[in-house]
Amino acid sequence: xxxxxxRTGTQRQRGAMSKFLTAYEALGLPFWSLTVQNxxxxxxxxxxxxxxxxxxxxxxxxxxxxxxxxxxxxxKILIFDHNKDHVNDWVEEIMNASSSAAEFVDGTAYHWxxxxxxxxxxxxxxxxxxxxxxxxxxxLGIHNDHIVIGSxxxxxxxxxxxxxxKEISWARAERYAHTILADLAAGSHGWMEWNxxxxxxxxxxxxxxLCETTLLSVPHRAMDATIDASPLPHFELQQxxxxxxxxxxxxxxxxxxxxxxxxFLDVGIAVQPIYFYMGHISRYVRPGSTAVMGLVHPAxxxxxxxxxxxxxxxxxxxxxxxxxxxxxxTVWPCEGSTRQQFKWDDVTRNIxxxxxxxxxxxTASCVGGTVDSDxxxxxxxECDDKAGxxxxxxxxxxxxxxxxxxGLRTSKDHCLVIEHLGNDGGxxxxxxxxxxxxxxxxxxxxxxxINPVTGEASSLYFKSEEAENRVCMTTGWxxxxxxxxxxxxxxxxxxxxxLNEASQSANYALQDENEVLVTGMIPxxxxxxxxxx
Length: 533
What we know:
By secondary structure, the chain is α+β, with helices and mostly antiparallel strands. About 20% of the residues lie in helices and about 25% in strands. It contains ten helices and 26 strands. It has helices at about 5-25, 55-70, 85-95, 125-140, 160-165, 165-185, 235, 250-255, 260-265, 275-280; strands at about 35, 75-85, 105-110, 145-150, 190, 195-200, 215, 270, 290, 330-335, 345, 350-355, 360-365, 380, 390-395, 400-405, 410-420, 435-440, 450, 455-460, 470-475, 480-485, 495-500, 505-510, 515-520, 525-530. The strands form six sheets. Strands 15-16-17-18-10-21-20-19 form an eight-stranded antiparallel β-sheet, with no helix packed on it. The protein has a five-stranded parallel β-sheet with strand order 1-2-3-4-5. It has a four-stranded antiparallel β-sheet with strand order 9-22-23-26, with helices on one face. A hairpin with a 6-residue loop joins strand 19 and strand 20. Helix 2 (about 55-70) crosses helix 3 (about 85-95), helix 4 (about 125-140) packs parallel to helix 6 (about 165-185) and helix 6 (about 165-185) runs parallel beside helix 10 (about 275-280). It starts with 6 loop residues before the first helix and ends with a strand.
C-alpha cells in the first residue's frame, strides 16, 4: 500500500501498519522496530512505494509517529532504509531542528547496494558517507542513542552455490566481512543479512529477484532424500535460472573442497563461505560491543611495506580486483600492494589502474576528473572524456602537486587533495580511508610523493611528532584490514578481527599502544578472530 496525498490514504496506511504489529504480537512475536518504507527512492516492480524525504517526514510526523506512540510505544521507527549515497540528505530533511517528525524517530536504516546495475560494486561504496552521517548527527544535536543500522545486504544475481565459482564465493564472503567491519568502524550499531535461508538459486521469489544468503535449503542433497526429490519448487523451475545450478551438478566431495561442508550437505543445507566469514564477527562481537581504534600499519623500522619488502620495486598482494569503474579513491597506510599502484600516463595525462574483476575479466579504469555529487570524492571512471587529465608541479623535496588540467590552462584550485572523514575516521582514525578529492593546490594535503617505479602516490599530510603516518592513494581499501572491539558480552573482553583479501600471506604483531599482545600470520584470502583477555 502506498501513501497518497489525501488524509484518508495516510490514515489507512498508518492503521494497517499498527494492525500488522498487533497481529504479530498476538502470536507472541513482538517487533523491535520498523522502517517506514523499504527503499523509498526506488519504485520497484515488487511491493513498494516511492517517497521523497519530505513526504516521509510528513507521514512520520502526522500519521505513523503519533499512531505508534499510542498503540506500540516500544516499537522503534527507523527512517530512510535505502542506499548510502543519499542517507545524509534524508537525515538532514527529517531530523533537523524544525522537523516535527524528529521526536518520533529512533534511528536511520541503510542498505549496502551501489544503486546501479554493476552488482560487483555492492558493498564497495559509501563508507565515507557513513562517517559524514555520524558527523551530521552530532551537528544536529542528535543523541548518541540514535540507531544507525545496515538493514539489508545481499549479493546478486543468484547464489555462489548455483554459480559454482570458488573465486566468486570467496570474494562475496570477503566483501561481506569488509563492509561489516567498515560500517562498524564508521559508527553503525549493527548489520543485517537480507534472508536467513533461501533455496539453491536464491529464491523463492515471485518476480525472479534471485540473490544470495548464507544458508541454502537443498533437501535433494540430503542423505535420506528420495531419488525423485526436486531441487526447487515447480514454479521456480520455469524461471530462467531454474534449470541452471552448477552446485547441483557437483559431487558432495567437490562442493566440500569449494567450501561447502559435506556434513551440512548431508542434511540438506548448503552452508556457504559467507556464513563462516560473518561468523568470525557475529559470534564474538556480541550485542553491547563497541568499536575501538584499530588500523593496520607496516612494521616500523624494517624499511618496507606489508606486501612490498624493502628493495622490491613491484607491489604485491595479487591482482587488484578493485581497479574498476565506480570505486572510490581513498588514502590508507601504505601496504605496498597493487591496490595502491597507479600508472601515470605521460601521453594521455590520465592516472590509470589495472586489475581484474571477480569473474577474471581484465579491468582498466582512470581517476575521474570531477568530484562525485553523491559520494563527494573522486571515483574511478572509464578512460574516456570523463577521465581527468593531470599534470605535475615540482614543489621540492621530491614532492609534487597533482593538478587537474583543463584544456591549455591549469587551475590552482583543482589539485588532488585529501578530504578528512566526517567523524575523524571513527575507529579507523584520520588515516583510515580519508577521501581523495579536488581542492586548492595551496592546501597541505595537496603535496604528494610520486614513486615512478612502484606507481605509488604517498602523503605525509597526517605526520605527527609521534609517527610518520604515511598514507598512500588507494583504490577502495587495502587488502589487509582489521576491526577492534570491546566485547563485554563476548567470549573475551576484547576482540580483534583480521581480514586478508590478498593472495599473499602476511605476518603481523598485534599491539595495544606499545605492548605487543599477539604475533602471528594470516594466510592468503582468509579471516581470523583473536580474543584477548
